[in-house]
Amino acid sequence: MNNTEIETGTIFYNVYKQNINIKQFTNWLYYKANEIEINNHYGCDYYFELINIDYTDKYAYSNLCNILESKIDFGYQETQKILSICSQLINKEGNVIELLSRMYDLYCNGYSFLRFLGLSYVSNGLDNKKNNESVIICNIQGRLISEAVRLKEFLELKQIVIIDEFQYKDNRELKDRIELTDINSMLNYD
What we know:
single chain; mainly alpha; 2 domains; two-stranded antiparallel ribbon; 2 strands; elongated
């Protein structure tokens, strides 16, 4: 895939996930999108379907999602999302609690390989605003970074392959699947 295809696919995905609203999408489609690239990659008929939607209609979002859904590479987009969160944890960028909250949501929705990071969010009380978050994060940050590095490597080496939204193939050896162990061993509480 070239950069324009990746960018276009990411925009389609973000519209579908409601991270980009209809107004932003139409602005992109009519003023910033590369019509030739969309035609080349998705076909002229597909581009025509996109520009033929009445974006002022109350069903515009639903109609758009019906069109976008067939062209979104959910496996690629979901992989990129998780890699991005892992990179932010590793590089200490962004709000750790927000990043762990996102990992927790992804874990609860089906990515069981995120168990360590997801459960670190709730098992350490980071979901409770009354706790001293900075002390908790300081105590567990090394383990979070180690796990983010480990997962990022598995994704990059395609030992974990996301094939669709919340569906993945796990090619790791059993010993590498720490999320299968009991929670105390996984979180080093024993």
